[in-house]
Amino acid sequence: MKNRSFVILYWFVTLITNCYCFFDDIGMGARQTAIGNAFTAVCDDVYSIYYNPAGLGQMNNSNIAMMYAQLWPSISGEGLNDMFVGVNTLLRNNTGVGFSWQTRKLEGVVSADTVSVSAGRKVKDNLLIGVTGKYLKFELTGDEVNTIPELRNNNSKSAFSLDLGVLLRVKDINIGMSIKNVNTPDIGLFEPVPVPMVLKAGVSKKLTDKVLLAMDISNIYSVTEFSIGSEIMVRENIIIRAGMLGSNAEYSKICLGAGLKINKLQLDYSYVVQILGGVGNDTGTHRVSLNFKLK
Predict the structure, then answer these.
(1) Are 243 and 35 in contact (CB under 8 A)?
(2) How far apart are CA 43 and CA 176, in angstroms?
(3) String of b and e for 219-250 (b: at least 16 CB within 10 Å)?
(4) What does the alpha-carbon distance between residue 37 and residue 243 come to, in Å, rounded to a whole number?
(5) Pairing, β 95-106 against β 110-124
(6) N or C: which end of the chain has fewer CB within 10 A?
(7) Integer angstrom CA distances of residue 85 from 41, 113, 260
(8) How deeply is 170 buried, as exposed, middle or buried, from its count of CB atoms within 10 A (0-12, 13-18, 19+)?
(9) What is the 3-state secondary structure (H, E, C) of the chain?
(10) Residue 172 sits in a domain of what CATH number?
């Protein structure tokens, strides 16, 4: 109880000027985070909505996906959660569309919701483009809000955002690029607090039918992240994954995970822990995802 009270107080004090952090690009999906978020050039499932919407144009199946994570439970007191639900389908004319809802919340303190509508289209055999429109909503949810007159009728803010993506195939190599939050939407309650633009680029290659290798680089303000990851199908229905992520801000992470396919259902798990920089007692984040092929 004491630990939770400290967490609530800490977040409440910092929320007003740092609310953009609830929309930080920390990755989404167990498969994707297990390979270090090196997914910009892979983008072959529902999570293309999040990483690179151009990938929706290359998918032949309709899917529905769900993810749940407790973010940094040793630090947040098991109160900071991440959830995702998404669906995609392929229309005529080589156009894929997707819809997702993501919520990140600190229980009893704040919630940050993102509703996304995406489309990806194959314009040439080796070129796909995509776009995602997002509705963002930030809201203070704690009972403490009602005790502060300035917040009582000003405890939420919404904004619209735009992501763009490109996927290029050069022989057997995929090259992906995306720009997230092109318009740097303002999500501040009392003063402008823009959600930062994220520039991402990546390459991926299937070394064999059972081995995928991917690399990404991303930039947010002056922070540049580098990541590399791989997944290997050790059996027809079992996949193992590993990745690493580092940055010029002197932090790095190790990423591990596995996947299990059962007919049209796929269950994925990832574990990501920061080994350099950050808070010393970080014991890592666990994510679980389900993906179901509708047809």
Answers:
(1) yes
(2) 9
(3) bbeeeebbbbbbbebeeeeebebbbbbbbeee
(4) 8
(5) antiparallel
(6) N
(7) 22, 12, 19
(8) exposed
(9) CHHHHHHHHHHHHHHHHHHHHHHCCCCCCHHHHHCCCCCCCCCCCCCHHHHCHHHHHHCCCCEEEEEEEECCHHHHCCCEEEEEEEEEEECCCCEEEEEEEEEEEECCCEEEEEEEEEEEEEEECCEEEEEEEEEEEEEECCHHHHHCHHHHCCCEEEEEEEEEEEEEEECCEEEEEEEECCCCCECCCCCCCECCCEEEEEEEEEEECCEEEEEEEEEECCEEEEEEEEEEEEECCEEEEEEEEEECCCCEEEEEEEEEEECCEEEEEEEEEEEECCCCCCCCEEEEEEEEECC
(10) 2.40.160.60
Q: Which amino acid is at 75?
A: I
d(CA 231, CA 121): 26
The identity of residue 141, as a single letter, is T
Please tell me the distance from the alpha carbon of residue 202 to that of residue 191, in angstroms, as a whole number. Answer: 35
Q: Which pLDDT tens digit goes with each residue over 21-64? A: 888 888 999 999 999 999 999 999 999 999 999 999 999 889 99
- Residues 9 and 48: their CA atoms lie apart, in Å, by 36
Q: How many domains does the chain have?
A: 1
Per-residue model confidence (pLDDT) at position 6 = 47
Query: Which range marks the domain in which residue 191 is found?
Result: 2-293
Among 181, 186, 178, 139, smallest CA distance to 161 is for: 181
State the greatest distance between any 2 C-alpha atoms of the chain, in Å, as a whole number.
62
Burial class (CB in 10 A: 0-12, 13-18, 19+), 144: middle
Closest by Cα among 133, 168, 141, 138 to 156: 138
Q: For residue range 97-142, list pLDDT tens digits in order.
A: 999 999 998 877 788 999 999 999 999 989 999 999 999 999 887 6
Q: Around 161, how many Cα atoms within 13 Å sit in the side-chain half-sphere?
A: 27
